[in-house]
Amino acid sequence: MRVSASMESLWQYIQSLSLSERNRIWLADKLLEGTRKEEEETEYISKEEILAGIDAGLKELKLKKEGKLQLISARDFLKELRDER
């Protein structure tokens, strides 16, 4: 609860300031700056990319069933990932 109390105190302090319009815009911009950066950094995958990944996985499973592809276990895969570091 300490955080919310501090936020409330900060809000009351900000409201008590006699800010000019320019300063209010600057302050609002600074408060939103972090959220804008997060939005810009968010990467999205398209529907086509998702469907292509599913299609590739299903083709690999089909090849495995037909004996045309040798797969490794999840344990071995994770071991390979750890060893690459």
Task: Please tell me about this protein's structure.
This protein is mainly α. 78% of the residues lie in helices and 0% in strands. It is built from four helices and no strands. The longest helix is centred in the middle third of the chain and has 21 residues, at 21-41. The radius of gyration is 26 Å and the shape is elongated. The model has no long low-confidence stretch (mean pLDDT 81).
Give a topology summary:
Layout (H helix, E strand, L loop, with lengths): L1 H15 L4 H21 L5 H19 L8 H11 L1
The fraction of residues in strands falls at: under 5%
What's the main sheet like? none
Structural class: mainly alpha
Low confidence ranges: none
H and E order: HHHH
Radius of gyration: 26 Å
**How widely separated are the two ends?**
41 Å
Q: Let me know the average pLDDT.
A: 81
Task: Report the count of strand segments.
Answer: 0
Number of helices: 4
| Oligomeric state as shown | single chain
Choose one word for the global shape.
elongated
Can you give the helix content as a percent range? over 70%
List its traits:
85 residues, mainly alpha
Briefly characterize the structure.
With 85 residues, this protein is an all-alpha fold.
